[in-house]
Amino acid sequence: MTLAGLSLAYLRDRALNTALNILLLTLSVATLVILVLFSSQLSERFERDARGIDLVVGAKGSPLQLILSSIYQVDVPTGNIPLATVEMLLGNHEAAAEMARAVLQMQPRFTAALRAQIAALGHLGRAEEARAQVRALLDS
Fold this sequence. Notes:
The mean pLDDT is 89. The chain has seven helices and no strands. The chain is rod-shaped, with a radius of gyration of 32 Å. The chain is 74% helix and 0% strand. It has two domains: 3-70, no CATH class; 83-139, Tetratricopeptide repeat domain (Serine Threonine Protein Phosphatase 5, Tetratricopeptide repeat, Alpha Horseshoe), CATH 1.25.40.10. Helix 4 (83-90) packs antiparallel against helix 5, helix 5 packs antiparallel against helix 6 and helix 6 (111-124) packs antiparallel against helix 7 (127-139). It is mostly helical. The N and C termini lie far apart (98 Å).
């Protein structure tokens, strides 16, 4: 009797054990294939969602939370930033100074608007106005 014949006789003698082993092996391979497919699809989705995004701007907080909430919509948003700050980042310093001025007319002690106005005035070369706002910020 050859080795192959001996092996087949052993498998036939223990048919239930052989069937269960084949079933478990099949389930294991299927599970691994599903995990690999899921991993590749998840990676592809993350890359697709982040495509075309060069900069993420948000309120103070965890950078990871900012990325997860802004790009992947997976976490709670970190909050808002003043519109004057957005205009500053876009390079619209005149618009930023005007927006900050409008906010300060309604709420003169709003420090975020004061900081945005100081930065905008500095970029516009209006140093005296910026110094006056710095004094107002330090007094508040």
